[in-house]
Design brief:
The chain contains ten helices and nine strands. The chain has a seven-stranded mixed sheet. The protein has a two-stranded antiparallel sheet with strand order 6-7. By secondary structure, the protein is α/β, with parallel strands linked by helices.
Length: about 260
């Protein structure tokens, strides 16, 4: 299950409002846009692993999907299960409490962040393959290796001398070590180099269909992003433009997050 540091971060509400505005809102809108294009049609069965409070599970259930959330944080499970049409239980991405070949799609929109060792991440991918039906899809989110380096300039985190040391560590081995949980530097996590994604996925027996940039470089626009998201027309324009270039490999390193879409052949 989660390390105590990570569990404490989420129990303090680390995921409660993250996707509500700014960078988080752009991440949500883009992730939802991709899901609407790669998931099988409703009423397919979706297993949302690490689904937190059900921020994606709720809208998927409203759209007619049968959604079950598995999350290691008990408070998240309670919140997710309160959403209409969503069921939820406590569990670990590496040992899912779900039968073989029992769902049409699996979402891993958080677990890979907190599995610091490669074999742990491959284990999560293998479990997703075990529970998804042949032909089913698995969609996983990853944080980009260089996200904190850029984020430090967007939010002024470099004013804190400890932040540069954190970034230097990520650049060496991909592990974001937040040594002071009281600071708002996320929590300890693994940040992926886009080039390593395919190896982790194929190591599980799944086949990579595509890797897409979520926000592209637009998450770095700072205060201007709020103005864009407040205007429906400009938001739609931004989403359309990002959709057109989401599979451009040279943009993956500039995106805060990227999604891997894999298939059980």
């Amino acid at each position: 299950m989660l390390r105590s540091e990570v569990m404490d971060y989420y129990r303090r509400g680390g995921e409660r409002d993250r996707l509500a505005d700014g960078q988080g809102r752009l991440e949500y809108l883009r992730t939802w846009d991709v899901l609407t294009r790669v998931l099988p049609g409703a009423p397919a069965e979706v297993l949302d692993v690490g689904g937190a409070t059900g921020v994606y599970a709720g809208p998927l259930a409203e759209a007619g999907y049968r959604v079950h959330v598995v999350d290691p944080v008990p408070e998240h499970v309670v919140a997710a299960a309160s959403r209409p049409g969503v069921t939820a239980e406590v569990g670990d991405a590496r040992e899912l409490p779900v039968p073989d070949a029992s769902v049409d799609a699996v979402l891993l929109l958080g677990p890979l962040y907190h599995l610091l060792e490669r074999e742990q991440r491959v284990s999560a991918w293998r479990e997703a393959r075990r529970v998804v039906r042949p032909g089913g899809v698995v969609v996983a989110a990853m944080i980009c290796r260089w996200a904190s380096m850029f984020d430090g300039f967007v939010h002024g985190y470099y004013d804190d001398p400890s932040f540069r040391a954190l970034v230097e560590g990520v650049l060496v081995d991909g592990v974001h070590r937040n040594v002071d949980p009281e600071k708002s530097f996320f929590t300890s996590a693994y940040f992926h180099d886009p080039a390593e994604v395919a190896g982790e996925v194929t190591g599980s027996g799944l086949a990579v269909e595509r890797v897409v940039a979520v926000e592209g470089p637009l998450w770095q626009t700072g205060p201007r992003l709020a103005g864009i998201l407040a205007d429906p027309d400009r938001t739609e324009l931004m989403l359309d433009m990002l959709r057109r270039v989401e599979e451009e490999p040279t943009l993956l390193g500039a995106s805060s997050h990227f999604l891997a879409v894999a298939r059980h052949r």
